[in-house]
Amino acid sequence: MSAAHTVLGEVAADRLGVVDAHDHLFIQSPRLPGQEMDDVEDAAARLSAFGSLGGGTVVQWTPYGMGRRIAQLPALSRGSGVHIIAATGLHQAAHYPDTLLASVRDRLAELFFAELTEGIGDTGVRAGLIKVAGGFHGLDAHAVLTLRGAAEAHRHSGAPIAVHLELGTGALDVLDLLCGELGVAPGSVILGHLNRSPDFTVHRLAAEAGANLAFDGPSRANHATDWRMPDALRALADAGFADRLLLGGDTVTPDTPGMPHLLRRVVPRLELDLGKGLLEQILVTNPARVYTW
């Protein structure tokens, strides 16, 4: 039977509730020096705030080697009453030291599959998705390597593949490789950060291909992308792709508004534009399908 693979075990789709489809409780990267998110008390406060606002599940997209703090996630889930889904996978090469990349480069599919089915390290916690990344308007050699590893792990497990799109670009290149050459079903692919590149034509083409489209996290550089997000979601819904849409907070630094902001500020704004019924589909129905396998 399909279920979401949370840090506390399998959870039926109808028990996930309102889902933050892309966020981070913990994350570290050399690209964000001095902005590490590794404070357990802060993570607990954010989770509790999210739960108090009606949130039911947070999907942490932090992949291998980026400070996931997997061992802390079960206690945080129990303490807050919020389900947490953890990720395996690998981000862009710039997020890792060369020594780490060299140690896993030839065994990515094996690593991802093991974390999905056997558990992460000695924690016993299984990952519930595979997180990888594209490049800026294309795919570099590292992206191709990690996408191939993700596709192989997906074939053997059925786990969804979530893809960081750099500044929201490269969606069609990702789909060409994953779904065209590598044969991954588009419904198992989640394209992240599409709000950061408000190209409605690309959004439409990705939806027509069958992929899931995540609009996740406020913009830092171009706030025009934020106020265009309701129009992008409405255009996709009106075109018949309401079942492809997801929302997330994408907290990546301590000053990111994050998951409480998603429910406190973003959702009421979207409700005015989209209506309660569509918002419920985006926050509850769609992620319940996407994150169960």
From TrEMBL:
Pfam families assigned: PTE
Gene3D superfamilies in alphabetical order: Metal-dependent hydrolases
Protein name: Phosphotriesterase
Top-level division of the source organism's lineage: Bacteria
Keywords: Hydrolase, Metal-binding
Species per Swiss-Prot/TrEMBL record: Streptomyces xanthochromogenes
Family statement: Belongs to the metallo-dependent hydrolases superfamily. Phosphotriesterase family.
PTM-bearing positions, type N6-carboxylysine: 131
PROSITE patterns for this protein: PHOSPHOTRIESTERASE_2
Entries under InterPro entries matching the protein: Metal_Hydrolase, Phosphotriesterase
Entries under PANTHER family matching the protein: PHOSPHOTRIESTERASE-RELATED, PHOSPHOTRIESTERASE-RELATED PROTEIN
SUPFAM superfamilies, per the entry: Metallo-dependent hydrolases (SSF51556)
